[in-house]
Write a structure and sequence with these properties.
This protein is α+β, with helices and mostly antiparallel strands and 140 residues long. The protein has 3 helices and 2 strands; from the N terminus they run ααββα. Strands 1-2 form a two-stranded antiparallel sheet. A hairpin with a 5-residue loop joins strand 1 and strand 2. The two termini are 33 Å apart.
Length: 140
């Protein structure tokens, strides 16, 4: 049995209404091939085996000062971080590297946390062979 033929417990429900039947088959095949990559529940969000090496221009750690969380958001941010810790999606760290957190409201009003990695990114050695931009087979 090939990977495409293996039964899959979860394939995301996506709207393919404007696609031709041939395009729908291509999309379904792609979804089946990548089925293991999709989160199946809200608690399924950690990539256990992912390891990334980042090459830097020097070995001096980026250590940006902590920026305070706005007082009205503090309780919500604390709950958000505790939830991520409890799910195992993040963990405590004693790294010499640190970057500040930025709080942003999503369109639906919920909170999203971003990490300001601009200083770290400026020290990152660019990959001379970046991943190619992939185009969908039905796009010209």
């Amino acid at each position: 049995m090939t990977r495409e033929e293996q039964p899959c417990s979860y394939i995301p429900d996506i709207d393919t209404g404007e696609l031709t039947e041939e395009q729908r088959l291509v999309v379904r095949k792609m979804l089946l091939e990548e089925a293991e990559s999709f989160s199946k529940t809200d608690d399924d969000g950690r990539a256990e085996e992912s390891q990334v090496d980042i090459n830097l221009t020097d070995s001096v750690p980026v250590h940006r000062k902590y920026t305070g969380i706005p007082r009205p958001l503090y309780a919500e941010v604390k709950q958000y971080v505790e939830d991520l810790l409890n799910r195992g999606w993040i963990q405590n760290s004693k790294s010499a590297y640190s970057s500040p957190v930025v709080c942003v409201r999503k369109k639906d009003g919920t909170l999203r946390l971003y990490i300001d990695y601009r200083q770290l990114n400026s020290k990152t050695v660019r990959d001379s062979y970046p991943l190619p931009r992939c185009r969908m087979p039905w796009k010209a």
